[in-house]
Amino acid sequence: MNDTHANSVGGTKSHRIYLLLKDAILSGRLAPGRKLPGELKLAEQYGVSRVTVRRAMQALNEAGLVARKPGLGTVVLEQPLDATVMTASVANLLPNMVKMSKASRVRLLEFCYAKPPEPVRESLGLHEGDKVQRSIRVRMADGKPFSYLVTHVPEYIALHYNEADLSQTPLFALLERSGVKVDHAAQTISATLATHEVADALEVSVGSPLISLTRVVYDEEGRGVEHLDALYRPDRYRIQIDLNRTGDEAARYWEPMAPEPRQAEAEQQA
Predict the structure, then answer these.
(1) What domain of life is recorded for the organism (predicted)?
(2) Number of neighbouring beta carbons within 10 Å of residue 215
(3) pLDDT mean over 44-61
């Protein structure tokens, strides 16, 4: 399925409705074969005109998400699996970084040295004037892009590898080859909308919802060795969090599960 057809509705109200209905279809909330409400009902639901709804429905039809059927109206179509869905477990963060690198390939868009933005400089614990190696990569599975990665690595580490290395070898492996002893990472997860540049790289429409992940990796001495800003297509990437119910009866709560020792060891060796 290609999203370039949606450019015809741009950043308008019809594009917003298109994205909302597309998300409902791809997430399964609107199942294959289900009839969509009529133009009038959708217009009332979203507070827009019927013309706006009609444009959104046309974009959905061009995307292969719905079809008009005589006597039935507009129905949701069955969607083929058009890419492997990558799954990352929060409990096994570092092992999963290795597994994902081996299960996908990367396209390097940018490689340069520059002074980092202030938030990146602070998170890496660098001094003013220090430089970092900045790269932009698109990671792909089965030839389909699923992540847009912007990384910053301190210059003193990045000098151990070059552009050709990064285009062929996972950054995690290059860090270890450079003598870095990776110990732990801090990670936050949010959501954002695709800009023109990101949308083009991930083959989605401008304004499409994306998973936003920021990760700072530290070595055994607590020094920041990598800052990652990653954007993921939610239809091709998911984050898994396994939880345990714990606490006494008066104050029960959910707690993230620690990885099983044997499982973590096996994934480290994968």
Answers:
(1) Bacteria
(2) 18
(3) 92
